[in-house]
Amino acid sequence: MADEPLTPETNVMADEKSQPDSKGNDGMPRVDDKSASPGFESTDAGTLPAPNTSATPPSPEDQAAYTGKAPSGSSHGSTVMPSALSEPIALPAANVGVPKAPVKKKEEAPKPVDASGHSLVTKLRAQFNEAIIEAFEFIHQLSIRVERTHINRVCDFLKRDAGTPFDYLSDVTCVHFVERTDAPFELVYNLYSIPANERVRLKVALTEMDEVESVTNVWPAANWMEREVFDLFGVRFFNHPDLRRLLLPPDWEGHPLRKDYPLQSMENNWTAKHLPEFTDVQREQLEQRRSHGLEILSSEEERRVRDIFRAGREVMPLNRK
Fold this sequence. Notes:
CATH architecture of the domain at 113-253: 2-Layer Sandwich
Low-confidence stretches: none
Structural class: alpha/beta
Largest sheet: 6 strands, mixed
CATH superfamily of the domain at 113-253: NADH:ubiquinone oxidoreductase Nqo5 subunit
């Protein structure tokens, strides 16, 4: 059977059949249609109440209660779920947790206490009277200030004491107090008693021009200790067997451990003074040796030291006569 040609009327009829109507194929109302079916009236739908025009508009807090979010413009971005709309919404505190323990008051640092009643101080004052200026104790360390002209006799007495013989001189040092105009330097003698296991510290105040008697006759080990104090602080000891610099060159100017000492300028001056004078020829020869790695062979003595190390011999044998 031959196909019939389609006319405009047949196309319209086909379109009308292809479009769904408000009813299903069986003529029943569609359940998925949101609009009411034609001819259908609801019998159980109530009536909406009229809007209350006299009520105040909701506040941002009430809006937050409805939406469960913080009001607009609030710094709290977390969701808030209120228990009741009429109750105020309590936002969580910034730091909620275990309360911090109270700050413990810082203990005061230990301070020196008077040690005039110490047995050793009493013994020294009975022997030297006014030469013992002051005595104090700091963290169980006894310190005694002695008049400058009596330091040798006090040291000799402590070394020969029968009860606590201070037979060991631990150290002799010095401290520079720039703010003290009357006596800016303070000598410190650290003594130790080996039999009694006791320590004591003697202190002597003096000016830049004062001299102190050496204690090398009491403890021979004080020789180099006093030389070091003289070298670095400039304190002079009379009756010393060999008072000269210990660490610095003999022609060094000043004393480096003084607080007002210009260390950098003095060092540069001494270095410039002792540098060898180089001619243009010598400077060129030095640069050539360094470029070839021969700077250690610039003199006969350096070449001899190189030969000694290559042969495995000692530079200064212990049995050398």
